[in-house]
Design goal:
Distance between the termini: 21 Å
Number of helices: 4
Radius of gyration: 14 Å
Largest sheet: 2 strands, antiparallel
Number of domains: 1
Shape: elongated
Structural class: mainly alpha
Length: 119
């Protein structure tokens, strides 16, 4: 792996771990877990897409090509649906704040790496 990709790959790997833990909580029914469905779609298929996009970005090279950069940004945006600022209003925020805050920091760092490389 290109050494320049390592920080972005690390951020994507962190998002993958966060989403896998939440998917496991969903299947196990361990609180706090995401609801099985949310308006417009089921959460498990959404998390599957989020994980797939993040893995694809790592495989392609998260900041080497336009495809990698696009997939990295898409992975970050998909993660923000689960960990974005709207979660501060979630009634379960007191139980989920570590993953929300870490998810936001991770996405921010990923975006900085991608957009810095794009210049």
């Amino acid at each position: 792996m290109n050494p320049m990709n390592r920080p972005a790959a690390a951020m994507l790997a962190a998002l993958i771990v966060l989403q896998l833990v939440m998917l496991g909580a969903l299947f196990a029914g361990v609180a706090p877990h995401p609801p099985a469905t949310i308006p417009l779609f089921g959460i498990a298929p959404f998390i599957a897409v989020s994980l797939s996009v993040a893995v694809a970005a790592i495989v392609v090279g998260p900041i080497e090509t336009i495809y990698g950069k696009s997939l990295s940004v898409l992975a970050g945006l998909l993660a923000l649906l689960s960990y974005g600022p709207q979660k501060y209003l979630d009634p379960q925020f007191a139980s989920i704040w570590p993953s929300v805050v870490f998810g936001q920091i991770t996405v921010l760092a990923l975006f900085i790496l991608v957009f810095r490389k794009a210049r």
